[in-house]
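User: These chains co-purify. Model them together.
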Amino acid sequence: MSATTAARNAATPKRPLWTRIPVVHQLRQSVGLQRGMLVAGLVIVAVFLLTAIFAPLIAPYGFAQLSTAGKTFGAQQPPSPQHLLGTTVGGYDVLSRTLWGAQTALFVIVLAIVFSIFIGVLLGLVSGYLGGWLDRVLVVVADAIYAFPSLLLAIVMSIVISGGQSNLIGGVLAAAISITVVFVPQYFRVIRAETVRVKSEAFVESAKVLGASSFRIMFRHILRNSTRTLPLILTLNASEAILTLAGLGFLGFGIEPSSASEWGFDLNRSISDVTAGIWWTSVFPGVAIVLAVLGMTLVGESLNDLADPRLRTRRRAAGAIPPPGTSVATAPGASTDVIGDLELESRS
Amino acid sequence: MTTTMIPAASPASPAARPKRAKAGGTKIWRYIVVRLLLIIPTVFILVSMVFFLMRLTGDPITAALGGRLSAAQLQERIHAAGYDRPILIQYVEYLAKLVRGDFGTTISDNHTVLSVLTTYGGATLELAFYALIVAFIVGIPLGMLAAYFRDKWPDAILRVFAILSYATPVFFAGLLLKLVFSVWLGVLPVAGRASTSVELDIQFLPHPTGIYLIDAFQTGNLADVGDVLQHAILPGIALGLLTAGVFLRLVRTNVIGTLSADYVDAARSRGVSEFRLVRKHAYKPALIPIITVIGLQIALLLGGAVLTETTFEWKGLGFMLAHYLQARDFVAVQGIVVLLAVIVAVTNFIVDIIAAIIDPRVRY
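Assistant: Joint model of the two components:
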């Protein structure tokens, strides 16, 4: 019954489904502290997006610029009016590179998420619906990948894709694909679990009786009813993508400094600066990473808590907070458990 | 990951439990065997995946020595190492060697990979151990505290702390700690596992274990032990905080869950104070999910160790991995990656078994 309503709602184009309903609905549903966290997260994410998009306008210099008006910046200059956050050991402007870094990060996040949703959803759907040996093999493989340290997997992938170092497009693609490989099992697991749940619903049976093809059932009937957990994993994965990108960059697998700005790479270059007491080359790119990840995690966390009745602060309870015991857990739906799993057990 | 999270307040029907417990004696062995057999495909898949992926880029000799040798010399070495044969034959040979514990020989400095693994493995183990201690000490009590103060300001602060500890990359946390405690305050060493004099002491030991804390005790010099511990503080905290945040959130969620369980309600109705409820009644069941999650945390810790070791020049497997990556020595990289994968698979197995022994509901 509720599934058919959901199916009708799902007939609207996809984008509104996850932008309008999840976030706005949950913003209205949230109260007090939870609302504060959600709002703070949304604000940080908005700032991050704006920085990424308008980096060329905001940044005082280019990310690979070494001089202005024929005068070189100089290496490791402390913050000054010309260079608000100082310059790096390579002679770049720290502020500019930090701002441009947002753009690189955004490219990688978007690509990684698009790729992994596409592959993960497809595999999860097919595997969950068709079942059989294919399903078993995919589950074992996904579990194996899932248990593997994600950074190591990303390293192996980036060796395969780019041999380790590359220009902007190559580097972004390599990083994005490396991260994709890490994420696919997560989407696969969630979508597969949802598919297995949904496929036994009456409306799938009736579609079968009407003679719909497996393809049509999968993409028309099941897919649209199994995507409700996606926004959540999406926000959590976006933050993980930034961390993985930075980790790769830190190990020297980033994008070359002249091709793009990448926070992790800049941090790697600042290791020796730190020992010498030069703090500005590491602190600012690092804070940028923390803020970006923090924003997305706050959004993801809040969505997760709001989806779980055991953790949701209820509206009625907002005025006087009751003793913890009185908010009895209502039986959480099967799928919220899946989210809880993923969020708590994954590298979260 | 094969275990499922136990919902904290899952209504295990009390009537069914004694029966299960009786059957548990024989069942646990079946579970162990099945779970043991499940490791094999996991490890096999990972090893195969890494092998084929790394080989896709070409042979390791060209990768490592490409610019330095002439084409003819390269060909000769490739031929000598057998990298010009069909890939499937190489694969089978690789597996056969692997079973015998032969991980190959590094190209850049001609050590056996196995010797690299045994020399530097101890350091990584030691670091992971310190990190886990930090994670337990910080994560579990704070998680209980957050649950006790649920939705009040201490809870808010603790949750922001948990999220921050996750949002901060370990290497940035490491750099910050270094900046504050080593450079500005000058109270702790900047990098390395021990001072040079202590390293020398340890090198002359008859049976060094590679784990400096044990070795320092072996020297019989308490100052050495202090020195080793001093070097361990910052890396341990940097890596441990990452996991501490996960533990904190997990304990908080699960204690909140158990606080509404019937038996806690019963205790509450007897007039047990809310604080005592958290401390004595609700937290034990909340620890079980932690045990199951440690398995995955090991994977996270090992990944984080690579970054922490690079930050602190802590000469363990992660540091060597970064070193060999820079040297483009993919035989060594492959060896280290495979070993770490095996460690993760085995720890997951052990953790699952422990979880099954503690909580019969896990066995299925």
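The radius of gyration of chain A is 23 Å.
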